[in-house]
Amino acid sequence: xxxxxxxxxxxxxxxxxxxxxxxxxxxxxxxxxxxxxxxxxxxxxxxxxxxxxxxxxxxxxxxxxxxxxxxxxxxxxxxxxxxxxxxxxxxxxxxxxxxxxxxxxxxxxxxxxxxxxxxxxxxxxxxxxxxxxxxxxxxxxxx
Length: 143
Known about the structure:
three-stranded parallel beta sheet
């Protein structure tokens, strides 16, 4: 286990390195990644993202939930406050699921998943908790 002293030391090294000094608050691209909290699948590593290139939101299963939508709404307001305008209109979202995800183990706890997804029990199957491919059907929206 990494203790707080080690984390503070690592953070000091990061801060002293200045790797973020020229980065802006908003990502350099128009990408937001929604990924899983599983430590084996860090979205930056999986997608080869550089620091500052994308916004990353992580939750259990890498799912778009009511809480995720609230976070996206708040991020939109941060952009508005920072830029004085609505921000980019050409936003891209990547939902990153993976195999052997712990959310599949939660299929045995439908009451927990109903609460997590904020859906009626009858709609839970549509979340495809045990199938990471079916959970994210390909969709392209043109404005």
